[in-house]
């Protein structure tokens, strides 16, 4: 299906609402029926009926169709957050006594789910280094039911070989889930590579304006329906019609925003790579990235999120570099219009900082929609304030 068709037309029954180009926010909790028998029919198939907005809602359903189509999936389910989507999918697919395999260091709250919450229900998880697909095969036990992936990771950018891992899982009847927030379906299509369920934090690139929290799952109709009729309806992690409308508006410009972020990150990472104060830039589409070949094979583009390590990685230098930035904001999250910075030391006390631990040294940058020269000027000033010697000017930004 054409991406322009999906983003501009699919799912929009404009004749039902005055041919309005922007869809209405159907801000209602419940839907009325003419007869008890009509209500009974609807209740026998709540997955495809508008009865109550904790289940389905017409504004949310427009988004449902578009996000399923973007992923090349049969169906989609929207949630009030990205971790809500991940947690409900995982809870739905596992029961007491089951074993899961997760890539090491997934998103922090996903990690907590596997590491702390699932053990309460008798579910164990093995965390594996995802850079070698054989590690997944080796970790499989007789009770393994689920493999959880996040590729690329959003702190160390490590990739997993999606095709190879999907093939291993399929041959053992193990379900695969991936957190595809970094790439979005425009840059990576896991279902086409054999992955069963795709999760995304819609808060990031889908929304794109830093004003709405949401999540999405896509997969086969049978799988999505099963999750909807059980954990989704019981846990009540539904997306509001208002939030759905904001995500729909975000989707209209997704290709423009994603490409801008990608192109700017390309320029800025290569500029940073040449800067004398910078030791290393970690971004999957950098020529020196360790898994560059796999990135080129399974991703069509790259998000604007990357990390750097400074040559002088003292706690104070990292902190003052971040504080010196005037336009790049110090904040969590990413995927919006605004560029951001967050150092690993933001989540640790000074006495816990280990100067030769690369994970501690990471400074994560997100490149938003600003002019890349404007961002380079900001980075340049902040770097020059913490380093002496020859200075690289923003005018030296080259392609
Ligand atoms: C932000 C994020 C999440 C969580 O999404 P929320 O919408 O904040 O719940 C999950 N995975 C990744 C990779 C993220 O960046």
TrEMBL record:
Q: Could you name the domain of life of the organism this protein comes from? A: Bacteria
Q: Which organism is it from?
A: Mucilaginibacter corticis
Instruction: State one molecular function term (GO).
Output: carbon-sulfur lyase activity
Under InterPro entries, the record lists: Cys/Met-Metab_PyrdxlP-dep_enz, Cys_met_metab_PP, PyrdxlP-dep_Trfase, PyrdxlP-dep_Trfase_major, PyrdxlP-dep_Trfase_small
Q: Which residues carry this modification: N6-(pyridoxal phosphate)lysine?
A: 204
Q: GO CC annotation: what is one?
A: cytoplasm
Indicate what this protein is called per its UniProt record: Aminotransferase class I/II-fold pyridoxal phosphate-dependent enzyme
Family assignment from sequence similarity: Belongs to the trans-sulfuration enzymes family.
